[in-house]
Write a structure and sequence with these properties.
3-stranded antiparallel β-sheet, 92 residues, alpha+beta, 6 strands
């Protein structure tokens, strides 16, 4: 719970304390995942490399936080990611 702060509008945000991280994450060849576990044991994840590229206009704007819109980390979310990345349905 301590890594996400809730704004007045209800959005959860992850503070980026070092701008070098933004550049590093944006320039990765592969996906960068932010994974958060709360005190109730629920795990959520979000791809942040492309989110940061868009939010910073490919590095032209400074970003100090990520609006965390993570989805549950479970079997179904992994299957959805697999379908998005590979462009195919999983075997039944």
């Amino acid at each position: 719970d301590s890594h996400l702060k809730t704004r007045k509008d209800g959005a959860e945000v992850f503070q980026i304390k070092d701008q070098r991280h933004v550049s590093y994450w944006m320039n990765q060849a592969f996906l960068v995942l932010l994974v958060v576990r709360n005190s109730a044991g629920e795990v959520r994840w979000m791809e942040v490399r492309d989110w940061l590229r868009e939010a910073t206009d490919n590095g032209k704007k400074k970003v100090t936080q990520i609006v965390f819109e993570g989805e549950r980390f479970d079997v179904m979310s992994i299957r959805r990611w697999r379908e998005r990345l590979l462009g195919q349905s999983p075997p039944i």
